[in-house]
Amino acid sequence: MDLLVDQFTMARKLMADNNCNKPIRLGESSSVSGGLDHVADRFVAGFLWLDKLGQCALHAITRVYRFNVWGGSYSLLNRTTFLPNPDYYLTLLYKRLVEGYTFNASSNAPYIRAYANCAKPQRYTPGALVVYMVNVKDEPVTINLPQFSGQAVDVYWFTSGGEDVLSLDIRLNDVLMDSSGKNGISFTPKSIQGSIEMPALSYGFIVIPDANVEKCRDQPPTTTPRSRALVTKHYEYSRSSGAALKMWFVKLCLTLYFIVM
């Protein structure tokens, strides 16, 4: 999981050494050469994928291109049934929840990776915050959000839909995801107030609707039409040191005419 950070650092240094002030994009965003059979299209692949999205947001990567919708072992759709693979659901929910400023999120456990962004204002009240994380430990962990103690949160926990992490199926809050219904794909959160327990070997999102984060509350709404859905926007982001820089937030782009909502 740390190799990608080293590559971002190398890219930044290369640009600085050559006085290049251009945005960085991540192109090949899954495993090389089509991915590993029976792994890259399974539930387990989501650990790397969500962590990659978080790292891209932290390192101001302007766009992330996911390869690919169909074809290769890492495709988002099953090559036989054309039904969604686990990464499809994860990608779609990410797009529905995450937008705007990136914030530092820390964890005191090595088996937890955590990231934070503004929640999409079309889904939640402006000012809402979304924390997304992966838990690679084979037992549940308790998540504490001291800044928002006592507030109600919405959780979206993805777990394997089978006996192990190599399953082709995925569950959201213990409910098996199914795209065959007439109403399409829906993501129903679980509302929690108090202690937050993250399942073993899981990944997902915590939304704090009433976080009232100033930067999230004041960010301009995106009213970009569908035909321009892949256009990036930039925002000002201040590090803890007080130095201001332009932080480009990640926009996830999918190829092969996959329309991102």
Automatic annotation (TrEMBL):
SUPFAM superfamilies, per database record: (Trans)glycosidases
GO cellular component: extracellular matrix; extracellular space
Protein origin, superkingdom: Eukaryota
Cross-referenced Gene3D superfamilies: Glycosidases
PANTHER family: HEPARANASE (PTHR46145)
Protein name, UniProt field: Hyaluronoglucuronidase-like
Organism phylogeny: Eukaryota, Metazoa, Spiralia, Lophotrochozoa, Mollusca
